Task: structure prediction
Amino acid sequence: MSEVSAQQNPNAILSDDGVPLKQKLARTTRTLKWRAFLLTLPLVLFLFISFVLPIGQMLLRSVHNPSASNVLPQFAEIIQDWDEQGLPDEAVFAAFVDDMQTAKKNREIGKTIGNLATRMNYEMPGTRSLFTSTGRKVNKIKAGPYKEALLKTNKKWDNPVIWRTLKRVSRDYTPAFYLAALDRKYDDDGNIVRADELYQIYVSNFGKTLGMSVVITFFCFILAFPVAYLLSTLPMRTSNLLMILVLLPFWTSLLVRTTAWIAILQTEGIINDILVYLGVVADDGRIQMIYNQTGTIISMVHILLPFMILPLYSVMKTISPSYMRAARSMGGTPFNAFRRIYFPQTLPGIAAGTLLVFILSIGFYITPALVGGEDGILISNLIAYHIQKSLNWSLGAALGAILLVVILVLYWLYNKLVGIEKLSFG
Result:
């Protein structure tokens, strides 16, 4: 093959073994690429299994919920042809009764009447008892007409709204959970409207989460900047000793640090006792600093502060002190020298620290759950509630997907305004 190539291109540069150099270089490059790919394959598989696949499952779960069609497979197919005028015809009732009897008989995991009742209750609160009571009586229906027989078990089946809702929830793919996450719902006629005031909790909590994250990031920056500056200007031996104090919280459990703040901030805690002793507040006027937003912000600032100090320190350590001395020698005041010479050089560290702290604070869960109470919980706590307690996984997945989109949009805006290439973590 190499001889043929050499004959076709007699001017080609050959290697020692007679193979054209260009061909041999391409072969070597291809081999190196495959070798690099095989070396990174374990990492790619790890990222896919632990990161890409769970996010994909979350996004699918947020729109895919076959709870109704699993229990009522025949009914879910037939009901889609109904024009939603009045009550469905006899064939729809017959399919509904047959599927309900089959579900009660089989009792397969994920295909019970209880799963259907829970799914319907998400759309129409208060209908769970209707399905469970009908499930207990459905075996008594032996023959048609099924419409009359079903109405005898419970007169509530005469409500067309229930059947319209059943038609909607019988579809495997639905935007209903995203609507609920945005404080919206379907009304009796199938139109999208605002949810009842009692259920309008998610949009406001998204706003509160973003607002608190901004406040936490701001306080972390205010506290971290002078600490990082001090660490970068002290002699190496002293700065290393102080850096141990910065890193010391990482050696302590997050749960321990959070519960310590409960003891410090509670009304009978250390801070309130000192304020009462100094006469700043009366004994019966102790400040409530825990189980609210104040407690959440204080404890999260303490926990996330090292994540702001370390990027700032890594950048400040590279700034030569001669820049400030040169600015002073040219007549600049200390403030102007700091503002125009030193501070602009710290922007990569500021950008990295603020981005890191902001994203971490948005997804924080344990600390708000322990010290936030009802006022200081974040959107992550509501997601955990639906995943662990209410078992409304689709709504939890929708909330998580919206949070992911919000973070990506903010990251895009941050890149446009600041530039990710300017970030420096050390």
